[in-house]
Structures are given as structure tokens and as C-alpha cells.
From TrEMBL:
<feature type="signal peptide">
    <location>
        <begin position="1"/>
        <end position="25"/>
    </location>
</feature>
<keyword id="KW-0732">Signal</keyword>
<protein>
    <recommendedName>
        <fullName>Lipoprotein</fullName>
    </recommendedName>
</protein>
Length: 161
């Protein structure tokens, strides 16, 4: 659908520019090509960020795909790791200890009126590297803002639950 809309937009732009003269039409084709390149890079980057968020929730937050060998440094910046360490609320016998639970609700037990599944429902971009992750945390609805910087999670903020 996105490709169709891009093609329709290009066709309309070419029709309008062609009516104005041939040199303008050539410039319009170059401009449309540049816009496609920027749009493709934006879509690819957004897709990579969404894949990163899904991986982090699978490997660390919900630990549904945890192999115990995943290194947090691969997925989090130094800033986020410091914040995760500061948010850790329990005794820590083997440092470093990270509060991956800070990226989910504060609930500790499954919702008795649900199947108790933890899963992501949606990930929406807010711009400037921020994404809102909507999820079920053991059957409880939750939302967390996550900031991506240079391909890693750099910050997070639990939204009102």
C-alpha cells in the first residue's frame, strides 16, 4: 500500500510539473527519487528500531526468548544501563544487576481475569527516536516509552498504568 501511494504521488507530481515545462519535470523526477530514498531509509530505520524493541522485550523484559547469554550491552546504551542499575530494587549478589522490569508494569502477579500472557500489542513512533510500547504484562495492560539512539535503547519511561 505504501509503495502504491508513493507511485501515485510521483505520478501526480510529474503531471503537474510536466504542464509547467520539461526542465521542471526532470527536476521533479530527481526530487521524487531523493524523497523515495529518504522515505525508504526512514522506514528501514523504524523497522530496525521496532525489531530491537521486540528483541529486548523477548530477551530481557518478558524473558520469553531468553537464552541467558544475551548481553545487555548489545541492546542498551551506557546511559540506559546506568538507569536500569539505579532502578534495581533488590539485593544484588552478582553485579551488575539491571531492573529490566522497569520497562513493564509494576504488577507482580498475573491478572486473574486473563490468560496471564505477556506480549507486545503495538509499537508506535512518537518521533525523535521515541516509541510507545503497548503490551500485556501477565494480563495487565501497560505502556512504556522507549528512546532509541544509535540502534540501542537509550532511555525509557513507564507511562501511567
Amino acid at each position: 500500500m505504501m509503495k502504491f501511494l508513493k507511485n501515485v504521488g510521483q505520478m501526480l507530481l510529474l503531471i503537474v510539473i510536466t504542464a509547467c515545462g520539461s526542465s521542471s519535470a526532470e527536476n521533479a523526477v530527481e526530487t521524487a527519487g531523493e524523497q523515495d530514498s529518504v522515505l525508504d531509509k526512514t522506514i528501514t530505520k523504524s523497522s530496525e528500531n521496532i525489531d530491537l524493541i521486540n528483541a529486548v522485550y523477548d530477551k530481557f523484559v518478558f524473558a520469553t526468548d531468553s537464552d541467558g547469554k544475551s548481553l545487555p550491552e548489545t541492546y542498551f546504551t551506557a546511559n540506559a544501563l546506568k538507569k536500569l542499575q539505579a532502578d534495581y530494587e533488590f539485593d544484588c549478589e552478582e553485579t551488575p544487576c539491571y531492573a529490566f522490569y522497569a520497562l513493564r508494569t509494576k504488577r507482580q502477579d498475573s491478572n486473574p481475569e486473563s490468560d496471564g500472557v505477556s506480549q507486545i500489542y503495538s509499537i508506535d513512533s512518537e518521533g525523535n527516536g521515541w516509541y510507545v510500547v503497548a503490551y500485556s504484562d501477565m494480563g495487565w495492560p501497560g505502556k512504556t516509552r522507549v528512546k532509541i539512539l544509535n540502534g540501542k535503547i537509550d532511555d525509557y519511561q513507564r507511562l501511567n498504568q
